[in-house]
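ok so for the tutorial part 2 we go from a plain amino acid sequence to predicted structure tokens. step 1 is just haveing the sequence, like this:
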Amino acid sequence: MTRSPRSNTAAALGWAAAGVLLWSTVIERRLFTVRRLEVPVLREGAAPVRVLQLSDLHLAPWQTNKMNWVRSLAALKPDLVVLTGDLMGHTGARPSLLHTLAAFAGTPTVFVHGSNDYYGPKLKNPLKYLKEPSRLSTREQDIDNAKLTAGLEELGFLNLNNSAASLQLRGSQLDFFGLDDPHIRFDDGAQMRSEIAAQGLGFDERADNAPTRIGVVHAPYQSALGELLDEGADLILAGHTHGGQVRVPGIGALTSNSDLPNDQARGLSVWYDAHRAAYLNVSAGLGNSIYAPVRFACRPEASLITLSAPGV
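step 2 — the prediction. this is what the tokens look like for a chain of 312 residues:
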């Protein structure tokens, strides 16, 4: 019996949908990649500084391929590692995570937390992801964040949650300041500014050869970006968005899971107000919730950022 054109079209669409589902749930979310970019924020004559940004691992204890791939990045020999939160993806992932990140012990590393470093994942309606994100932290924490923080600090990593720090790297002074996760309203700009002042890292736009200033936050909400911009950030590093996680070719991300414009949900752009501007890199991250195992047109990524002097 000859099939009608309508039946052939329906069959073709069914096969296409099956192919997209297979690609996004089984293949693409395991295609880890390194996104390389250059940002001219160092002072004139400075040597380049290579920064490895890791974000949104959402690590579960059985994800050995992801662990091995992240550990392999130590071969890139970055001058600095920046962890922009949501490292945990399961309540029992802490030992596996610390083992994975131990590959960078001895490399200067700074970190902030994301909501999943306080709360384990739970099953949700995936369509809610496309709506305005919930910013409530009402359920009881089921991840021991204090032990996670202590484990990261024992590796020598610097805690930037509502805090600040300074490092000398390849002859350049880099001043860092960061916020805990705005997505669950754990950010505290007043505390961050107090730490900046206590460490003598205040911003003076009139100073010659001033240090390069880097703001770090997990979720790139506009209010948090404004706080970092007010402190004179030359570069802001964030994660959280998963790059949209599902991107439509020719359109891009359908959501940033925040109030950040969707067209800035992945990669390098500029964030500015009437007075100043900073480069903004939003990492699409390396993982996803175990309850939403999908990536489409948005490969999981680490960012290798070369900080350079203008004109170099």
